[in-house]
Amino acid sequence: MKRIEIDPALDLVLERVVDVPRELVWxxxxxxxxxxxxxxxxPWTTVECQIDLRxxxxxxxxxxxxxxxxxxxxxxxxxxxxxxxxxWTDALAPGFRPSQQPFFTAIITLESVGQGTRYTARGLHxxxxxxxxxxEMGFVDGWxxxxxxxxxxxxxx
Amino acid sequence: MKRIEIDPALDLVLERVVDVPRELVWxxxxxxxxxxxxxxxxPWTTVECQIDLRxxxxxxxxxxxxxxxxxxxxxxxxxxxxxxxxxWTDALAPGFRPSQQPFFTAIITLESVGQGTRYTARGLHxxxxxxxxxxEMGFVDGWxxxxxxxxxxxxxx
Lengths: 157, 157
Known about the structure:
The structure is a homodimer. The first copy, chain A, is an alpha+beta fold. The first copy, chain A, has 4 helices and 7 strands, in the order E-H-H-E-E-E-E-E-E-H-H. Chain A has helices at 22-30, 32-38, 128-136, 139-155, and strands spanning 11-18, 45-51, 58-64, 70-81, 85-89, 105-113, 116-124. A 7-stranded antiparallel sheet of chain A has the order 1-7-6-5-4-3-2. The first copy, chain A, is globular. The interface between A and B is medium-sized, with 33 and 33 residues.
């Protein structure tokens, strides 16, 4: 993908400059041991993470609520440009098969800003209802809290 | 994608050896002028075709029935390995956005067999119902007739 076409009626965007280099942010996103430490806003935890970092490969996480309820998502990587852009979707299962519960595509982009990183997370949806649902689930707040956790992980690398 | 994982309960497969080289089959699949000549089994015709041959790029066709009814599909390319493998899906719109009417992912693989080509078209579905629907729509027969038309196009290149 060369261009990223965002439609305000369909998409959610979180953009922030963080004070860690993008190479570390990339590691935090692409190594299961790191992902488990930051991916789910506390008090939820990420108890499992599988990564097969290639187009068509699996990105699977199991998130656990404080009450012990587990939520598993097995998505599919679409585009991987090291230290720059990571794209995956739950609209496809691993191997590019259409999924039974399509919801959104995530595009993470990283740009160097001095010693830090401009971090942009985009959520693309099929229709305004799905966008609204994701908004009500707390996309911006949740992904923002997870980003705080990610930055803390990077600072300990 | 390295492996192609096929599930007989979910997928449809058409495999045939054709007597044209795979480089010509690839051209027939990736150049709009060629696609329009063979993509839809007669008496249906393909009246429009747009191709943006990159992951995330558009593969759009407009098919027309003998009665003049038009059916437009705008899918998204996922993987492009020249002369070897072409993957696209209608579960994503161009730009990797989840689509409103996900149905199947297509994987076309080409292998040289002497002067000819082992041509394999796979249709991957989310569930058995979607597979059955595609079967009833005539996947094997329709894609087989289209392949006959494709071979005829290659022979005139």
